[in-house]
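Q: Focus on the shape:
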Amino acid sequence: MAQIDLIRPPWTLDVELLERCTRCGICREACRPGVIALDAAGLPFMDFVGGGCDFCGNCAAACPENLFDRDRAPWTVVAVIDGPCLTVPATGCGLCEAVCVAGAFGFLETSAGTRVAVIDAELCTGCGACLPVCPTDAVTLRSGR
């Protein structure tokens, strides 16, 4: 899996955005959870600081350039644990599991009595809701499927 810097809105392709996006920002304004932002070039990207994408489709419906193709998968990113996770018994964090509506997060008990976070990539939608709640920034999104 390759780490990606910017995740574009669901149902879009980088090449199409670069060629046809007018940088109007209407998709950002229409985003119900408020997780679409604009990069330095004015192109939309996902900013998961305030939560995750709920795939409501408002961005797609609002785009005057018809750059969103809801017949394709929203994207190919999945969450991965890529850093120090607070899953030891003393902390019992589990915030990622609590916010994951897809049920992709879980914890396995090790023989040493510690817990290890696991993510089911098949269940993960890549919505990003787990990113802002992780106190150690251990969860990231990577290109996967």
Summary: The two ends are 9 Å apart (CA to CA). Residues 2-62 form one domain.
